[in-house]
Design a protein that fits this description.
The complex is a heterodimer. By secondary structure, chain A is α+β, with helices and mostly antiparallel strands. Chain A has helices at residues 40-48, 54-69, 71-87, and strands at residues 7-10, 15-19, 24-29, 34-38, 50-53, 91-94. In chain A, the strands form two sheets. Chain A has a three-stranded antiparallel beta sheet with strand order 5-1-6. Chain A is globular and about 35 Å long. The longest helix of chain B has 15 residues, at 144-158. Chain B has helices at residues 54-66, 85-92, 109-117, 132-139, 144-158, 177-186, 200-204, 206-209, 213-221, 275-279, 282-288, 297-303, 310-317, 341-346; strands spanning 24-28, 71-75, 97-102, 120-126, 161-167, 190-194, 230-233, 248-249. Helices cover 33% and strands 12% of the residues of chain B. Chain B is an alpha/beta fold. The chains are: A alpha+beta, B alpha/beta. Chain A binds chain B through residues 13, 15, 17, 19, 21-22, 26, 28, 30, 33-35, and chain B through 17, 19, 23, 68, 70-71, 93-98, 119-122.
């Protein structure tokens, strides 16, 4: 089970290109040069990572997505997405 | 220009968006090379118009960054034949994802290390054949195969990802498996088998190089892809119409949509027109509209686009809305070994 303290934000030099009408967002990670095609769930998590605490990010995600897919599924979805984004250095711990 | 032919149901909801501006672009940075390849689409050395200067390319790259482009794909000629190419790469560093198509013969250990530091995400290395003698014959340069393999090894040792590209032709269709073996041997995670386009010297050498569609499909179907290697190919059922997102600029600064359209279109010069304005050229908009006379349902399902490649459709039919004859369901009896006289006259 994921348990994190601290605040999280989009990694400073990561570049996002958003396609609202397409429901898609691409992320470029210059430190490990790669382009990632973010699904809507991952995209939403990145947008929530604006320096707020982990617990808040998780709660805000579940509050928005939970009513559509169910709280447990939203929570599981969030943890998978958050971990993957962290692993790819698209988001990182902030001050 | 032909009037668009719309078929009921074919131009309905699309899976690809209509972009206000693209997010990736190919820069054909030069039209020079140290080799004399029989398949050279750029016809290196043939243009009398000046190529863009270092400063002009840098200014263009600044424009792309300001326009929120994410991805630049460099090709030539041979990009490393241009003395300022690393300076141009350095200007992109960390602002854009950068990939480079190259023959890799000029990538020694020191350059590979520099490219890694410059943030090059991937090299796409052309091997016209995976057998030394045939590659050397096709490049007109003895030792070019070994030099390319060394270049790949240097890139991999420096940690750069490499895709090996093979243009499917009469010279390699019987040994395609060797490309996959090479990928495993050299630690490359991708192999791209590409179609032969009737452009540049490849057009002039068409009789010697081209295959029938049956021969192509037999060669592709014979492949067994090893674990850890991804095979990219654009024949049925993956014949996509990439125009919706494609953008490219020639060495002279012309907006040409796609490197494979380089002999057919010119949407304007980036020297006197902002790139995004060329993106709205009427023909460019038409090619991005996915409006075609017929489409293969299976290719449409896998690609989310209609009609397949517009460059080969236009080359063989002379109509922008024509079916792409490289798809088995859209071929309609076109013999891909025989180029239309129209193309040869334009040469």
């Amino acid at each position: 089970m994921l348990s994190r303290n601290g605040c999280y934000a989009k990694t400073e030099n990561v570049v996002l290109r958003r396609f609202e009408e397409w429901g898609r967002c691409y992320a470029f990670t210059p430190d490990e040069p790669e382009i990632y095609d973010l699904n809507t769930s991952a995209w939403f998590i990145v947008e929530l990572c604006d320096g707020r605490p982990f617990q808040q990010i998780e709660a805000d995600y579940i509050a928005t997505v939970g009513p559509k897919v169910g709280r447990d599924k939203a929570k599981a979805q969030f943890h998978v997405g958050f971990d993957e984004l962290l692993r790819r250095n698209i988001i990182s711990a902030s001050e | 220009m032909n009037e668009l032919v719309r078929i009921e149901g074919l131009n309905g909801p699309q899976r690809v968006p209509r972009l206000d501006k693209p997010f990736k672009l190919t820069i054909c940075v030069n039209q020079t090379c140290s080799m004399d390849c029989k398949l050279c689409y750029a016809d290196c050395g043939s243009s009398k118009r000046p190529e863009l200067t270092t400063g002009q390319w840098k200014a263009f790259i600044d424009q792309l960054v300001a326009e929120e482009f994410l991805h630049i794909f460099f090709e030539g000629g041979e990009p490393f034949h241009r003395p300022d190419f690393e300076e141009i790469l350095a200007h992109c560093n960390r602002r854009l994802y950068v990939a480079v198509r190259t023959h890799a013969t000029m990538i020694d250990e020191a350059r590979a290390e520099r490219l890694m530091k410059l943030g090059v995400g991937r090299l796409y290395v052309d091997l016209f054949a995976a057998i030394p003698e045939i590659q050397d014959e096709l490049t007109g340069r003895p030792g070019s195969f070994d030099a390319a393999i060394n270049g790949i090894r240097n890139a991999r040792a420096a940690g750069i990802k490499v895709t090996i590209l093979g243009i499917l032709s009469r010279k390699n269709h019987e040994h395609l498996k060797r490309y996959l073996d090479l990928a495993v041997e050299l630690g490359c995670d991708q192999v791209g088998i590409l179609r032969l386009y009737p452009l540049g010297r490849a057009k002039r050498n068409w009789d010697e190089l081209s295959l029938s569609l049956d021969e192509m499909m037999r060669a592709l179907h014979s492949l067994r892809v090893p674990p850890g290697v991804q095979l990219m190919q654009s024949w049925h059922p993956r014949d996509g119409n990439c125009c919706w997102q494609n953008a490219a600029v020639s060495p002279q600064g012309d907006s040409i949509g796609c490197p494979y359209l380089r002999e057919y279109v010119n949407y304007g010069s980036i020297l006197d027109t902002p790139f995004v304005e060329t993106w709205n050229h009427p023909l460019y908009r038409e090619l991005r509209s996915n409006s075609v006379e017929q489409a293969c349902p299976e290719c449409s399902a896998t690609q989310g686009t209609f009609g397949g490649c517009r460059a080969t459709a236009y080359a063989f039919h002379g109509r922008w809305t024509a079916p792409d004859p490289y798809c088995v369901h859209n071929n309609e009896g076109v013999d891909l070994r025989a180029l239309p006289q129209r193309l040869l006259r334009e040469d």
